[in-house]
Design brief:
Length: 572
C-alpha cells in the first residue's frame, strides 16, 4: 500500500447564491449540508434541530395483523417467543420486544440462535424445540425475510410474525404477518430502519393499541430508544431521516438514564455517562455486544441489556470486554491468513473469495470488512465445513453484493443481506463454482472502473484555521454515521514534526505543525507500516476529534489519508 492510496474528491465550494439562502448558518455548516444534498433551508433546520417527524407504525404493511394477533396471545396467556439474530441489531431488537410484551403482561421468552450450531435466520430445529416447549406464536426480529422453507414448515404448528429489514427476495415467507418496509406494497415512507427500528415500530403499534383499548401501559415507547440507538448505529444503518431522529433521542436517553447493563458496559469501555455518541457506540459499545455472538453466546449480551442487578451487570460487562479482546486477536489472525490467500490470487480479479477450515464463523465478516477496506474489492470470507460452508461478504459502493448472490441462488442453500454486506450458506463442494460465478459477475460490472477507494473530502482548510470553534461547527452534524459521515477536512502543505509507530507497530502517531507553528497530534490507524514513506511535508485528509484523557480534552487529527505535498496539484 502506498502513502496515498485513495482517490481524493474535494467537494466544490458552495456559491455565494447558496450561502445567501442560509443567512443564519456559518459558511462551513452550509458547505457540509450541501455536500449531504441538504439544499432547502427548512430541511436544514429539521436536520440540525432534530425535528424529523416519525411515521405511524400502522403505515407498515402487516402491522394491524401482527398487533391483533399479539394482543390476542397476551389476553389468552399464550406462550410467545421472540426469535432474534445474534448481532447487536438482533439482540437489541429482541430485548426491546421482550420488554414491551412483558409490560403488556405476555408470557414471552427470548430465543437467539447459536451462530455456530444454527446459523443465520430461522432454524427449523429451533422452531420445533420452541413448539415442544409450548410456544405457539413466534415473532422474528432482524431475520426471517428469506426463510421461506422454514416458515412454511413451522406454520403447520406455529403462528409466525416476521419482522425484518433486510432485502426482500423473489417471494415473501408465508407467515401470518410480515413487517418489512422494503416489501412490495408497503406504503411506509421510510425503508432504511434497522431491525431494531422495525421492532420499535411494532412496539409502538402495540402500545398505541393498548391505549385505544383504554388500558394504561406500564411502558412508554421513549423508554426503548436507548436500545434503538445501540442497534441502529451498530448495524450501520443510514443516519438520515427517521433513523437520525431515533438515534438522536436514544443518545439523549443513554446520557440521562442508561439502563443498568448499558451503564456497566459503558464503564467497562472507559466511557462516562453523557459521553456516549454515535462513534462511541460504533467503536466501543457495539463491538463488545457483538463479541458475544461472534465467539460465545449472544444471550450474554441479551442478559446484560435486560439485567438490573448491579453485580451481575458488572460481571457480564467484564466478560464481554474480555470476549471483545479475544475477538480482536482472532480477527488479526484471520485477516493475516486471508491476506496470504489474496496475494496468491489474480491481482486483476474484481472480487476476492477466500476460504479455510480454520476460519471461525463469527470472525469471517470482520475479516471481509478489513480486506474490502484494504483492497477495495468485494470480498467473501468463508468458513469451510465438512458438508456446508458459511460465508460473509462485504462490498464497495459500485457493487450490490446481495444482488450478485441472487444471481447465484441456484448454488446456495440460503443467503441474504444488503447492498454492502451479506451472508450465505453453501454446500462445500460448490465453493469453486460460486467463486467463478461471482468473479464473472464482478468483472462484468467493475472491470472498467478505478478500483481504488474514494475519499470524499468536505472542504479544504489551512490547518492554522482549525480550532475548537471549527470542531463545534462540525458537531452540529451529530449523530454522524452511515449516509451522514463525520466530516472530512484536508489541509495542504503541513509540516511533519514527528512520526513513530505505536501499538506494536500497527498505528502511526504523528505531530504536525501548521502555518503558525502550532503543533497538532495526529493518529493514523493501521498504517504503521507506512512510517518510512511519510515525508517532511504532506497534504493530510482527516477527521477532527476531541481526544479525552484523564478528563483533559485536546483536538486530534484522525488521519484518513496522506500524500506528499508536492503532489497536490497533480492528484485529484
Amino acid at each position: 500500500m502506498s502513502l496515498q492510496s485513495k482517490r481524493w474528491q474535494v467537494a466544490p465550494p458552495v456559491s455565494a447564491e447558496v450561502l445567501a439562502r442560509f443567512p443564519d448558518l456559518q459558511p462551513l455548516v452550509v458547505q457540509l449540508l450541501y455536500n449531504r444534498k441538504i439544499r432547502d433551508p427548512g430541511e436544514a433546520r429539521d436536520f440540525l434541530q432534530g425535528q424529523t417527524p416519525g411515521h405511524s407504525p400502522f403505515e407498515l404493511k402487516g402491522m394491524y395483523q401482527a398487533v391483533e394477533r399479539l394482543l390476542e396471545a397476551v389476553r389468552s396467556g399464550e406462550s410467545i417467543a421472540v426469535y432474534g439474530d445474534f448481532d447487536t441489531d438482533g439482540v437489541t431488537a429482541t430485548a426491546l420486544l421482550v420488554q414491551t410484551l412483558s409490560a403488556l403482561g405476555a408470557q414471552v421468552r427470548p430465543y437467539i440462535p447459536s451462530r455456530v450450531d444454527e446459523g443465520y435466520g430461522l432454524n427449523i430445529g429451533a422452531l420445533r424445540k420452541l413448539y415442544r416447549q409450548g410456544v405457539r406464536l413466534v415473532v422474528t426480529v432482524d431475520c426471517g425475510i428469506r426463510s421461506i422453507d422454514e416458515v412454511e414448515q413451522a406454520s403447520r404448528g406455529l403462528d409466525l410474525i416476521v419482522t425484518d429489514h433486510h432485502t426482500v427476495g423473489d417471494e415473501l415467507p408465508p407467515a401470518l404477518a410480515v413487517i418489512n418496509p422494503k416489501q412490495p406494497g408497503c406504503i411506509y415512507p421510510y425503508d432504511d430502519l434497522a431491525g431494531v427500528g422495525v421492532a420499535y415500530k411494532l412496539a409502538q403499534g402495540l402500545l398505541l393499541a393498548q391505549k385505544r383499548l383504554k388500558e394504561t401501559p406500564k411502558l412508554v415507547a421513549e423508554d426503548l430508544l436507548d436500545l434503538v440507538a445501540l442497534g441502529t448505529v451498530a448495524d450501520l444503518a443510514p443516519l438520515r431521516g427517521e433513523n437520525r431522529e431515533l438515534v438522536r433521542r436514544g443518545l439523549e436517553k443513554l446520557g440521562e438514564s442508561p439502563r443498568p447493563g448499558v451503564e456497566a458496559l459503558m464503564a467497562d469501555a472507559g466511557l462516562r455517562r453523557g459521553s456516549v455518541d454515535a462513534s462511541a457506540i460504533g467503536f466501543r459499545l457495539g463491538p463488545r455486544l457483538n463479541a458475544a455472538g461472534r465467539i460465545d453466546s449472544a444471550m450474554l449480551a441479551y442478559d446484560l441489556l435486560t439485567s438490573t442487578e448491579p453485580l451481575k451487570t458488572r460481571e457480564l460487562a467484564g466478560q464481554l470486554g474480555r470476549l471483545n479482546q479475544r475477538r480482536q486477536e482472532l480477527t488479526e489472525q484471520t485477516v493475516a491468513e486471508a491476506e496470504e490467500q489474496v496475494q496468491a490470487l489474480d491481482p486483476n480479479a474484481c472480487l476476492y473469495l477466500v476460504a479455510s477450515k480454520e476460519f471461525l464463523p463469527g470472525i469471517v465478516g470482520l475479516a471481509a470488512s478489513r480486506l474490502t477496506e484494504v483492497y477495495y474489492r468485494p470480498t467473501a470470507v468463508v468458513e469451510v465445513g465438512p458438508e456446508e460452508s458459511r460465508g460473509s461478504c462485504r462490498s464497495i459502493s459500485e457493487f450490490h453484493i446481495t444482488d450478485a448472490l441472487d444471481e447465484c441462488k441456484d448454488l446456495l442453500i440460503r443467503h441474504g443481506g444488503h447492498a454492502a454486506a451479506a451472508g450465505f450458506t453453501i454446500d462445500s463442494d460448490k465453493l469453486d463454482a460460486l467463486r467463478e460465478r461471482l468473479q464473472a459477475i464482478a468483472a462484468e460490472e467493475l472491470s472498467e472502473k478505478d478500483l481504488r477507494p474514494r475519499l470524499e473530502i468536505d472542504l479544504e482548510l489551512p490547518l492554522e484555521e482549525v480550532s475548537w470553534a471549527t470542531h463545534g461547527l462540525l458537531e452540529m452534524l451529530e449523530p454522524t454515521g452511515m449516509d451522514n459521515p463525520q466530516p472530512v477536512l484536508s489541509s495542504p502543505g503541513v509540516e511533519v514534526r514527528n512520526k513513530r509507530a505505536i501499538g506494536s507497530g500497527k498505528h502511526l502517531k504523528l505531530v504536525l505543525r501548521d502555518g503558525r507553528g502550532a503543533a497538532w497530534d495526529a493518529i493514523w490507524f493501521r498504517r504503521g507500516h507506512l512510517l518510512d514513506q511519510v515525508p517532511g511535508q504532506v497534504d493530510v485528509a482527516y477527521r477532527l476529534d476531541a481526544n479525552e484523557w484523564n478528563r483533559n480534552r485536546r483536538l486530534q487529527l484522525h488521519v484518513q489519508d496522506m500524500r506528499p505535498a508536492q503532489e497536490a496539484a497533480s492528484i485529484q
